[in-house]
Write a structure and sequence with these properties.
Order of helices and strands: EEEEEEEEEEE
Radius of gyration: 14 Å
Number of strands: 11
Largest sheet: 7 strands, mixed
Distance between the termini: 40 Å
Oligomer: single chain
Structural class: mainly beta
Helix content: under 10%
């Protein structure tokens, strides 16, 4: 069982930055694929970014096209924490952001591959 807790959301002006954190329980954190998804009012939950463990060759990062070049996902295995650094924020980035974890996920951009979800943290970007 993995428990996830997001933090770091808030209100920011367009062009600003925020860093989201997701603290996870579990002894095998580094082997999990960790993802960030977001859901705006009236819209489906959508993929933002994911980081997957690929053994000693390093992590593999995947990003949605809408956030490439602006968002960076990273992890600190010693702290069982995954981060989402969000720069150059836009009003369309406004959503509840969810952290998710899964093991041996084939398609990291789909929600169904993830077994564990956090409660979400609100990010609001004003214009």
């Amino acid at each position: 069982q993995v428990q996830l807790a997001e933090s770091g959301g808030g209100l920011v002006q367009a062009g600003g930055s925020l860093r989201l954190s997701c603290a996870a329980s579990g002894r095998t954190f580094r082997t999990y694929t960790m993802g960030w998804f977001r859901q705006a009012p009236g819209k489906e939950r959508e993929f933002v970014a994911a980081i997957s463990w690929s053994g000693w060759s390093g992590d593999v990062r995947t990003y949605a096209d809408s956030v490439k070049g602006r968002f960076t996902i990273s992890r600190d295995n010693a702290k069982n924490t995954v981060y989402l650094q969000m720069n150059s924020l836009k009003p369309e980035d406004t959503a509840v952001y969810y952290c998710a974890a899964g093991y041996d996920i084939v398609v990291v951009t789909r929600t169904r591959g993830y077994d564990y979800w956090g409660q979400g943290t609100q990010v609001t970007v004003s214009s």
